[in-house]
Amino acid sequence: MSSTPSSAAWDSTASTSTSSALPPLQEVLVGVPDFLPVCILPAQAQLGECPRWDEQAQQLVWVDILARRLHRYDPASGRDRYVELPEAIGCVALAEEGGYIAGLRSGLWQLDQAGRPVLQLAVNPEDQAGSRFNDGRCDPAGRFLAGTIDEPKAGARAHLYRLRANGAGLDTLADGLLTSNGLAFSPDGRWMYHSDTPNFVIWRRAYDPLTGDCGPRQVWATITPTASDRGRPDGAAVDAEGYYWSAFYEGGRIVRFAPDGSVDASYALPVQCPTMCAFGGPDLRTLFITSARAGRPAEELARQPLAGALFAMRTSVPGCIEPRWRA
Predict the structure, then answer these.
(1) DSSP string spanning 114-169?
(2) Does domain 22-314 have CATH number 2.120.10.30?
(3) pTM above the 0.85 mark?
(4) 193-205: per-residue pLDDT in tens?
(5) In angstroms, rounded to a whole number, what is the distance separating the alpha carbons of residues 54 and 71?
(6) Is 208 one of the catalytic residues?
(7) Of residues 64, 234, 260, 283, which has the active-site annotation?
(8) HSE, side-chain direction, 13 A CA sphere, residue 123
């Protein structure tokens, strides 16, 4: 493990606010029916991702990968703050001892409470010219898992890794991927879900939350693209009933899958590229949804000015509190 000088700061003078005058979330959602997504933050994110609800602070943590920003959105005030990082940040989780763990281009890093990278926990073992960490989260025991993206999409060189205890390196859980994504766990921790977005597939694997051992991957759901619908499974969350909610990138919707892999419901969004979802709010019945605008055609952005925004919708079933990383 190695350390680095502080390269970011997150306090009242150094962080930047993107929303000084937006109404609180409670006001935005007044009178809005359940399952109707509404924009709560027109963030214009290049690649919004990895929303994580902080149940202690009652705030939403999320990232803009390409802008290299770690955000905190406060529903009570409507204010969003961000801090800039030295590298692209693909995923983040809250740490049990305070601060964060994050997947950056160069590897997995511990961030302090101000969002400063203070300790490198593991090096990205891939060619960093075309690889960075992407989707990641903690398992029920607080182990951090994160996958990479093969940016050229040419060699299926991406992997899914798990950080060993005490920063003793990485265990490889899956290889041969283009974009490691959709990582989530069933409420009892006995199933791990994982997708490879460009291959239109979601896998499920038996998982032992006590040991971290996982069984062979099984195809759990496949999506058939069409000429008019290239929607494919991006980031995801699991609700308290064990249903898997997947953001369909280029599909303009959130899809809820039943535990048997069948489609239970689909919810349209006013943007083409939702990227990930997370349950939050005091009752965990608010689904927060990030989105992207980078690389999208100009005519699409003209039709969809909210691309890159943060959305929220109320649901009838709650989610689960996210485990925190245990160093």
Answers:
(1) TS-EEEEEEE--S-TTSEEEEEEEE-TTS-EEEEEEETT-SS--EEEEEEPGGG--
(2) yes
(3) yes
(4) 999 999 999 999 9
(5) 12
(6) no
(7) 234
(8) 7
